[in-house]
Amino acid sequence: MRIDLLTIFPGFFDGPLDTSLVATAREQGHLDVRVHDLRDWSTDRHRSVDDAPYGGGAGMVMRPDVLVAAAESIWNDLAPGEPVQPPLHVAGGERPRTVLLTPRGRPLTQALVRELAGEDRLVLLCGRYEGIDERVHELVATDEVSLGDYVLMGGEVAAAAIVEAVVRLLPGVLGNAESAVQESFEHGLLEHPHYTRPAEFRGHEVPEVLRSGDHGAIAAWRHERALERTRAVRPDLLEPTDGPG
Ligand code: 6GU
């Protein structure tokens, strides 16, 4: 899979992309990820990407000309400044899935992650400032995604979350294929508790059943604990209609 990240803070991604499974996926050729500085598409000498809002009010708004030019270049695999003819044209067909990271988007869920992991290409556009010109939503984004109901300073953390969540589902990336499906949310429940040695630690014991060797009893115990935990902290996941899938 190829992922293009568009941001005014390209350095933000140095850590997330060079760590752990994401780094391994890149080294092994499962993931081709490219980080682009939005300012490279700015046309003024200050390299500005924002401007004051029509109608007044606090804060700045990300400019449509810069963001649309950046998206067009990336869709068509062109460098900043290389002309795109005609505008919004995508060589070879439809524009790739282009996700705008914004608190007004729909919340990221494992169901959406699975969907995104099925794409050949993703473009992740990180919002900053108070907002993004509405024409970017209309002309560029195929999806608008939020990390949750709280406010971050920009979409970079959300983009890094998408990369991590998607990469671990790519074929060949996880050593143990089972661990990709057995995690929280893949069965609509939170995970059961885990234990490793020692059998007793500071007065806290590993449940007897896990040491019994009875695989049926172990599976039943784990399912019960997962249900119990989900009921306690995420009862919404047990409602039939709006779980994360
Ligand atoms: Cl994607 N961006 C910002 N600025 N805040 C957020 C978010 C995104 N998701 C949750 N809060």
Q: Can you offer a commentary on this structure?
A:
With about 240 residues, this protein is α/β, with parallel strands linked by helices. The chain folds into 2 domains: about 1-165, SPOUT methyltransferase, trefoil knot domain (Alpha/beta knot, 3-Layer(aba) Sandwich), CATH 3.40.1280; about 180-240, Orthogonal Bundle (Trp Operon Repressor, Chain A), CATH 1.10.1270.20. It is built from 8 helices and 10 strands. The strands form 3 sheets. Strands 2-1-6-5-8 form a 5-stranded parallel sheet, with helices on both faces. It has a 3-stranded mixed sheet with strand order 3-4-7. It has a two-stranded antiparallel sheet with strand order 9-10. The chain binds 6-chloroguanine (6GU).
Give the rounded overall mean pLDDT. Answer: 92
Q: Tell me about the biggest sheet?
A: 5 strands, parallel
Give the fraction of residues assigned to helices: 25-40%
Instruction: Find the count of extended strands (DSSP E, 2+ residues).
Output: 10
CATH-assigned homologous superfamily of the largest domain: SPOUT methyltransferase, trefoil knot domain
What is the CATH T-level topology of the largest domain? Alpha/beta knot
Radius of gyration of CA atoms, rounded to a whole number: 22 Å
What spatial order of strands do you see in the largest sheet?
A: 2-1-6-5-8
Short description:
This protein has helices at about 15, 20-25, 65-75, 110-115, 135-140, 155-165, 175-180, 215-235; strands spanning about 1-5, 30-35, 50, 60, 95-105, 120-125, 130, 145, 200, 205.
